[in-house]
Amino acid sequence: MNILVPNQLQAYTGGQSRVTADGGTLAEVLADLDTNYPGIRFRMIDEQDRIREHIRIFVAGENAASLDVPVPRGVEVQIVGALSGG
Amino acid sequence: MHHLFVGTRKGAWIFTSTDGRKAWSVDGPHYLGSIINHLVLDPRDRQTLVMASSAGHLGPTIMTSRDLGKTWSESSQPPAFPKANEKGEGRSVSHTFWLAPGHESEPGVWWAGTSPPAIFRSEDNGATWEPVNGWNQHPMYDKWCPNAPTPDGELLAQISICSDDKNHMYICTSSGGVFETTDYAETWAPLNKGVEANFLPDPYPEYGQDAHQIAVHPKDPTRIYQQNHCGIYRIDRPGDRWTRIGENMPKEVGDIGFSVVVDPREIDTAWVWPMDGTDVWPRTSPGGRPAAYRTRDGGRSWERQDNGFPTEQGWFTVKRQAFVGDGLDPVGLYVGTTGGEIWSSVDGGESWSNLVRHLPEIYSLQAIEV
User: Fold this and answer.
1) Which of A48, A50, A84 to probe the B interface (max B CBs under 10 A)?
2) Cys-Cys link to B103, which of B166, B192, B265, B336 (CB 3.0-4.6 A)?
3) What is the mean pLDDT of residues A24-50?
4) From residue A73, how far is each of A24, A51, A59, B222 by CA, in Å?
5) pLDDT tens, position by position, B168-190
6) Chain B contact set for A79 (CB, 8 A)
7) A52 occurs within a structural domain
8) Domain count of chain A?
C-alpha cells in the first residue's frame, strides 16, 4: 500500500513523499517500511511501540491509536508531523 | 588547526581557525532545525564526531561522522530502553543530553546520558548503544530519579570518567545530584554531603540535589569542582563532603550558574559563569553585565573577567554545555549564549571578543585542537 511520508522523514526515503510498504497491521507495515528505509521507524515510534507525541498516523483516513490497527489491502497510510511552535 | 563544534536548538555548526584562534571560518548548518544537545569530537582519535540529535516531531537519534561533518551516518541502534514487560509502562528516551568519550584506554567506547536520566554505552564509536543497567535498573533508581523534571525534562546531565581509572566515574543528575561508581558503572552511591538543596524540606539531603555540572580535574582527579543549582562547590577525594567555595564570590553576583571549567594544568584554577538566581530566577548575567569569574586558589577567592563584554544591558544566559575551555596554554575559553552569540578568550579570560552572532539558541560547545 501507499505510504505518505511527511517532510520531516523524507531524509530516510531519499526525498520521496510517497513510498510503498506491505503488512496486515500498522506494526507490520512500519516494520516493512523500516526494512527499506532503516531508522525511519524509531523516529516516529518509541521503544515501547508507542506512536511518538508529535506524530500522527492515519490509516484509510482514521487516526491510529496504536500499532495494532489493521491495514486492509489497498488503503493509504498517511504519516503526519503534528506540532506547532517556533 | 582549532575547531569549535556548536550544537544549537536548530542545528549544528563547525568553526575552524588556522591562524591560532584569531579568524574562524564557518561550516554549516548541519541538520538545520534538529535539536542538537551535544556535539563532541573524540579527543582520542581527533576524527570521530558524535552528535546527539532529536527534532520537534521526531524521536531521538545519534549521528556520527568520521570526516569532520562532511558526511554523517545514523546510529543503527540509538539509546533506547528495553521493551517493558506485560505489567510495566516502560520508559522511553526523550533525548540524549550528554555525550562522553570513554577512557583513553578504551578507544571506540562512548557513554551517553539521557532524559529520563539513564546511561547508555557504545563500543563502536556511537554506531550502536546498549543500556547500562547498573544505573538504569538500580534498586534506588525511583528514589534517586523521582521524576522531577527541569524545563528540558529530568536529566542525566553529565558523565565524567577519571583520567587515572576507567572504572571510576561520576554522573550529575537534575534531581538526585552527584553519584559515583568505582566499578565501571555496576554499582553507584550518592556523593552530595554538604551540598544544599534549598528547594527540599531537608536542605542537605543524601540525594535530591540538582548538580548542574562538575569538573573532575584531568591532572588530579581527586579534585572536583561543582556548579550546582544552589551554589559552587569543591571536593577533594577521598573526602566525602563538599565545601561551598561560592561563598567567596561577591554577594551581589552570587554563585548560581550552570557551568564550571578547569585549567588542565592547574588544579586550583577554574572558571564559572554566574547568572542571576534571585527573585524568579532570571538566569541572566547579574545586573546585565556579563562576566566570567576565575579562581586561582581553589575557590578561596574569585576575580571578575569582563574585559570586552558589554558593560551594560548584556543579559546573557549560558547553558551548561555552552561554557568550555580548549585546554591549550594559555587556556582558550568559549561562551555560547541562548541569544546565539559566541564569545571567546584566548588568554584565560583576561580579554573577550565576539566570535559570532545570530546563531540559534546555543546548547553546547566543544573547543579542540586537531
Assistant:
1) A48
2) B166
3) 97
4) 7, 22, 11, 65
5) 999 999 999 999 999 999 999 99
6) none
7) yes
8) 1
- Determine contact, residues B17/B100, Cβ cutoff 8 Å: no
Given a cut of 80, whether residue A27 has pLDDT beyond it is yes
Residue B131 — left, alpha, or beta (φ > 0 → left; ψ -120 to 50 → alpha)? beta
Q: Is A5 on the interface with B (CB under 8 A)?
A: no
A55: domain CATH number is: 3.10.20.30
> What distances in angstroms separate CA B177 from CA B92, B171, B180, B195, one per listed residue?
22, 8, 10, 9
Question: What pLDDT, on a 0 to 100 scale, did the predictor assign at position A39?
Answer: 97
Does B61 contact A82 at a Cβ distance shorter than 8 Å? no
Q: Is residue A43 part of a domain?
A: yes
Give SS3 for B136.
helix
Question: What are the residue ranges in chain B where pLDDT is below 50?
Answer: none
B194 contact A CB<8A = no
- Answer whether residue A86 shows pLDDT above 90: no
> What are the C-alpha distances in Å from B73 to residues A31, A80, B43, B49, B63?
21, 25, 19, 10, 6
Alpha carbon distance A30, B295 (integer Å): 56
Q: Which structural domain, as residue segments, surrounds residue A17?
A: 2-81
Is pLDDT above 80 for A54? yes
Rounded to 5°, angle at Cα B265 from B261 and B267: 65
| Amino acid letter, B322 | A
Work out the mean pLDDT of chain B and round it to a whole number: 96
Cβ-based contacts under 8 A for chains A and B = 55
Percentage of chain A exceeding pLDDT 70 = 98
Q: Can you say how many angstroms the Cα of residue B145 is from the centroid of all Cα atoms in its chain? A: 19
Chain A nearest-CA distance from B151, in A, is: 16
The answer to whether residue A45 is domain-embedded is yes
Grid-cell match 576507567, residue found: B166
Residue A48 has its nearest CB partner, among B57, B78, B84, at: B84
The residues, any chain, with a CB within 8 Å of residue B87's CB and separated by 6 or more, are none
Exposed, middle or buried: residue B128 (CB in 10 Å: 0-12, 13-18, 19+)? middle
> Strands A18-20 and B342-345: what pairing?
unpaired
Q: Tell me whether residue A86 is in a domain.
A: no
What backbone torsions phi and psi does residue B293 show, to the nearest 5 degrees?
-125, 135
Give the gap in angstroms from C-alpha B85 to the nearest C-alpha of chain A: 10
Higher pLDDT, A45 or B88: A45
